[in-house]
Amino acid sequence: MTKATPENFIALLELQRRDARMTHLEESLKTLQSEPELVTALKRRQAAVAKAKELNTQRAHVEQAAALAEQKVTDLLDRLEKDRARRDAGGSAKEVSALQRQIDSLTTQVEKARAAKAVSGEKLDAFMTERSAILPKLQAADAAAKRLVAATQEKGAAMQAEHGQLAGERDQYVTAVDNAALVSRYQKIRTGGHAVRVAATTRTGATCGSCGSTMSPVELSEVEADPTEVSTCPSCGAIFAS
Ligand SMILES: [Zn+2]
Questions:
Q1: Distance CA 96, CA 104 (A)
Q2: What's this model's pTM, rounded to 2 decimal places?
Q3: What is the mean pLDDT of the chain?
Q4: How far is the CA of 236 from the centre of ligand 1 (A)?
Q5: Residue 178: which region, alpha, beta or left (left: phi > 0; alpha: psi -120 to 50)?
Q6: Choosing a second label site near 207 at 20 to 30 A (CA), which of 24, 124, 158, 199?
Q7: How far is the CA of 167 from the centre of ligand 1 (A)?
Q8: What is the pLDDT of residue 1?
């Protein structure tokens, strides 16, 4: 049998309120990193990073193709110029004729190479246009994720700070209850089960303020028989502190 005064009960409810807040903070801190909004943003960011890498690889390929096409034109023009110089320098009719055939062939090749160079230049332009349209979206996804991570960290730090303060002040609130037997019962109820439970609550007539269940008239009369005697809810086990 535990006896308690109204003042004990008021202080016990305050302890319960603060303990519940601490429990809530502990649970929120555990799930903070797995909040759907954050998880989604991080996934989007990951996809954006992958896409940016892919674009860089593609860019390197397209640029290399354009550079090769340009080099080919330069090389062919170089050979053409040399052959023309040799032809213009003169020689036997057979030599000049052979050189001319080569020059004709090179001229055709230059035309083809120029056409190929134009195509690869267009491809590069198209790619760069597409890339510049995509990049801001990737940057936005990156920035959004960073903002959310920072906000989550800030939120977590604030929760940690509040929890730390509550934990630091708990002893003084236990002392304020000023009833060791009552506190001991409270602790047993609170942490004695599988999960942390509400161990002190208010009562409105026959209705429990914690679990909401209603007592039978017999149960109620037992609870109300002696207001100084500590009674608990028959359903959830919480101490009726009022
Ligand atoms: Zn209850």
A1: 12
A2: 0.74
A3: 95
A4: 4
A5: left
A6: 24
A7: 26
A8: 79
Q: What spacing in Å lies between the alpha carbon of 233 and ligand 1's midpoint?
A: 5
- Tell me phi and psi for residue 207, to 5 degrees: -100, 130
CA 186, CA 210: separation in Å to the nearest integer? Answer: 14
For residue 45, the Cα-to-chain-centroid distance in whole angstroms is 9
CA 235 to ligand 1 centroid distance, Å: 5
Q: How far is the CA of 207 from the centre of ligand 1 (A)?
A: 8
Rounded Cα distance between 235 and 214, Å, is: 9
CB-based contacts of 39, cutoff 8 Å, min separation 6 = none
User: How many angstroms does the Cα of residue 238 sit away from the middle of ligand 1?
Assistant: 6
Q: Which amino acid is at 242?
A: S
What fold characterizes domain 18-172?
Helix Hairpins (1.10.287)
Give per-residue pLDDT as tens, 124-162. 999 999 999 999 999 999 999 999 999 999 999 999 999
Locate tokens 């597409």: which residue? 130
How far, in Å, is the centroid of ligand 1 from the Cα of 169?
Answer: 27
CA–centroid distance, 176 to ligand 1, in Å, is 24
For 8-56, how does the pLDDT look when each residue is reduced to its tens digit (9 = 90+)? 999 999 999 999 999 999 999 999 989 999 999 999 999 999 999 999 9
* Count of alpha carbons within 13 angstroms of residue 239, beta-carbon side: 30
Q: How many angstroms does the Cα of residue 204 sit away from the middle of ligand 1?
A: 11
Strand residue runs (E) in the chain? 200-201, 203-204, 207-208, 239-240
Map out the domains of the chain as residue ranges. Answer: 18-172
CA 216 to ligand 1 centroid distance, Å = 13
